[in-house]
Design goal:
This protein is of the alpha/beta class. About 45% of the residues lie in helices and about 15% in strands. The chain has a 7-stranded mixed β-sheet with strand order 1-11-2-3-10-9-8, with helices on both faces. The protein has a two-stranded antiparallel ribbon with strand order 4-7. Strand 9 and strand 10 form a beta hairpin. The N and C termini lie far apart (about 90 Å).
Length: about 400
Amino acid sequence: MVTQTPPQSGQDAPAGQGAPAGGEPSARQVAGRRWRSARGVVAAILAMIVIAVILAALRPSTSAQALDPESPKQDGSRALAQILRQNGTQVTVARHADDAVQAAGPGTVIVVTRTERLTNEDLGLLSNAPADLLLVRPTSFALADLVPQVRKDGPAFEDAADPGCPLQAATLAGSVAFHGSETYEVQGGSATECYKTEYGSPRVVQVRNGANTVTVLGSTAPLTNRRLTEKGNAALGMNLASGVTGSSVVWLVPDLPESGSGAGQQSLTDLLPFGVKLFFLELLVAVVLVALWRSRRLGPVVAEALPVVVRSAETVEGRARLYRAGHARDRASDALRSGARERLVPLLGLPRSRAQDPSAAQEIVTAVARRTTYDETYVGAALYGPEPLDDAGLVALSNVLDDLERQVRQS
């Protein structure tokens, strides 16, 4: 007759439907536990990816005709160019830096846009141009060549701001709606800083360059068809573009340079869209939060048995060496006196709680003096006196306390 051993607890279910023989978890159970522990992190990362995609989709794209004075698109500048012409200012459109420099003269303002398309040679020509320059949201390379004392400080997202400076072009325009803009930092030299953020970083900076000026505008809003009618945008764009005389404007919108001509003078931060930067910032914050969440937390102290038994004499000797190495005669003497009082108090018939009670010092000294050959002054100095001056005094104190304890025990 053949018999079968009945299944034990935890093994009743067939293979693949419960815990396998031996109590070891199956691969499906392990995968399920790992998924349950990691699904919160995965959900957070997916949510950030969705947010980054939405922000990138909502951000207005820049067309090839951005800031072009002949473009009627929302990001073009045809409206501002027409207003300048109607007010008697000659507007010349240039597609190359050398054409812009040749058309410029004293009293002319060169409006420089799309500086990411300028080569090193173009920047050199503009730096020597006999005219004022208006740099519209320039790259870091253009700033370094054309106005080296001004550097980027970071983005700002406040919609409107007041001039807060004596620059006539800004005071006449008043409050301006910049929307997203760059802010700047001036290092050395004198400059006029306007439309500062709450942290003190300006959006408009004008620097004197010999007989001419270089103005840095951190936003394209005052020049575009879409934002021209908001607050004082039109006035600021006209005032900065026409300059002091208002005679002529050379509007430089560089064409895409030929391949291999040194174009694209942009740093990595200039090339990355804002949505990508925001995504990496969110990812960094998420990683830090997950690290803090999953980090080991210190719980209460757990008492565990020592792996070896240490003799009390070795412990005392080890602590004594530490006191001696640190010249801690005060701690050593306090430990000797405290131990002596703890042993003397029961012998005197006093409660143990009185041993470390300062108010019971006189009572203990009197009781010890009655049962020894020493007077109260000597006993008080031994039990509550100052710390010894040297190691020899510490040894003498130990001998005195031993003698006091011996006499009390024998009395």
